Amino acid sequence: MQNKIEYLLFIILSKLFCFFGVKFSRKFSLPLAFIFYNFIPIRKKTVIRNLQLAFPGLEKNKIKIIAFNTYKSFLITLIEILCIPVTSENEIAKSVTFENIDLIQKKYSEGNGVILLSAHFGNWEYVALSSSLQLGIPFSVVVKNQRNPYVTAWLDKVRTMWLNEVVTQGVSIRKIYQSLKEKKIVAMVADQRAPRESIRLEFFGKEVAVHIGPAALSIKTKAPILYGIPVRQPDYSYKTVMTEISRENLPAGEKEKITELSRRHMAYLEKYIRMYPEQWLWMHRRWKY
Which residue, 9, 80, 120, 137, is the most exposed by fewest CB within 10 angstroms? Predict the structure, then answer.
């Protein structure tokens, strides 16, 4: 019953924002951020704690400003996602500007499959949708099921409105591997906390558990990792620079290769978070253990 009630509220919000349109609906992000940050502080302690761990020398007032803007950024993203059902294919395609989208095409043409990596940054859903439409190539998008199965089904439906298919994280690792062996493009995010038994790497000067999936798949299939982080611009468009995570001069052993390649893509993400801290999703306990 709880899932159905939550889903009903989710749909009502989607219908409301779709009625007003995404451009006008984004204006709700500021008052909603004020409400959630000050009166319904969902995960506020986690956001503040994460920022304190990541930026130990930053003044408390600046931490609070970044925290508030994190809520606002997330709400903009949520509103944009909820409006996807009434957003045209052309609007989605133009939502992200890629400085070098041809890099995806170039690597795709080399015949080893491509791992398109992103993060919970800006609007991560737009990256796979927009780039696949711009290239005219379907992606296999690796997703994690939400706690609410009705919300999961809704999200999967909008993710597959045009070219892409979805692959559930964990359950269908063989399908992801097979997609890469079939020279396809696989899109995924890997910035949230991994299981306790995963490898541990330095992130903002402190060790965290890291998902090895992207690096392991890259090593096993020879598929390059292209990292694309969507940075929100003042006009609410997104700008992304596709960057290949270098696989040169890796250690000899497979485990060591995976660890080093994971370290490289995590370091790349950290660089972007330091530049635009309010656009990363600080609401999960990244440093839980």
Answer: 9
